[in-house]
Specification:
mainly alpha
C-alpha cells in the first residue's frame, strides 16, 4: 500500500509553511526566502507554485473560508435534525480551530493584507457560513429572530476562534471545553 496519496503536495507544504510563518511574524514580517527555507527550496522557486506571496495569503484565507463553508454544509446535510445539526456544526468548527491555529491567527491578523477582490471573496464565503449556522440555530431555537441568532453565531465563533490564544489544555480536553461552552452560549440566548 502506497503512502504517496497521504503525502501533502509541494503546494500544500508551501501553504502550511506560509501559514506557520505568517502566524508567527505576520504577513509583512515574512519573506519568500523564509517560506522557501521552511520547505527546503529557494524563495524564488516558490514562484513555480504561486505567482506571489500575496497569492499564497489569498489562497490560505479563501481556502479556510471555503473549507469551513463546505464542511458546515456537509455536516448539516448529514444531520438527523436541528439539534444534531447544531452539534455537528459546533464539533466541526471546534475541531477545525484546534487543528488549524495558524490559519485562525493569520485570518484574524492579516485579512486586511488581501486585495479588495480576495477580501470580498473571503467575506462572501464567511457570510454564507454564518447563514448556515443562523438557519440551523433558528430551527433548533425557533423563538430566535434572525438578528439575535446572527449575533449569537458571531459570539460563538469568537469563542471558538480564540483557541490559538487560549489552548492551555490538551486537544481532547480543550475540544470538550469549547463544545460545552459553545452549546452553553447558544442555549443562553
Amino acid at each position: 500500500m502506497s503512502t504517496d496519496a497521504a503525502k501533502p503536495s509541494r503546494r500544500e507544504q508551501i501553504l502550511t509553511a506560509a501559514a506557520e510563518k505568517f502566524a508567527r511574524a505576520g504577513f509583512h514580517g515574512v519573506g519568500i526566502d523564509d517560506i522557501g527555507a521552511a520547505v527546503g527550496i529557494s524563495g524564488p522557486a516558490l514562484y513555480r507554485h504561486f505567482r506571489s506571496k500575496d497569492a499564497m495569503l489569498a489562497e490560505l484565507l479563501t481556502g479556510i473560508s471555503d473549507r469551513l463553508l463546505f464542511g458546515g454544509k456537509h455536516r448539516v446535510d448529514a444531520a438527523s435534525g436541528p439539534q444534531d445539526a447544531l452539534d455537528k456544526l459546533v464539533r466541526w468548527h471546534v475541531e477545525f480551530a484546534l487543528h488549524n491555529p495558524a490559519l485562525i491567527t493569520v485570518h484574524m491578523r492579516d485579512l486586511d493584507s488581501l486585495s479588495d477582490r480576495d477580501r470580498r471573496r473571503v467575506r462572501e464565503s464567511q457570510r454564507h457560513y454564518v447563514e448556515v449556522w443562523v438557519e440551523v440555530l433558528r430551527h433548533a431555537r425557533p423563538e430566535l429572530d434572525r438578528p439575535r441568532a446572527r449575533a449569537a453565531v458571531h459570539a460563538v465563533f469568537g469563542l471558538i476562534n480564540s483557541t490559538p490564544f487560549s489552548a492551555h489544555l490538551d486537544t481532547s480536553a480543550m475540544s470538550r471545553l469549547l463544545r460545552n461552552m459553545a452549546h452553553g452560549a447558544v442555549t443562553a440566548i
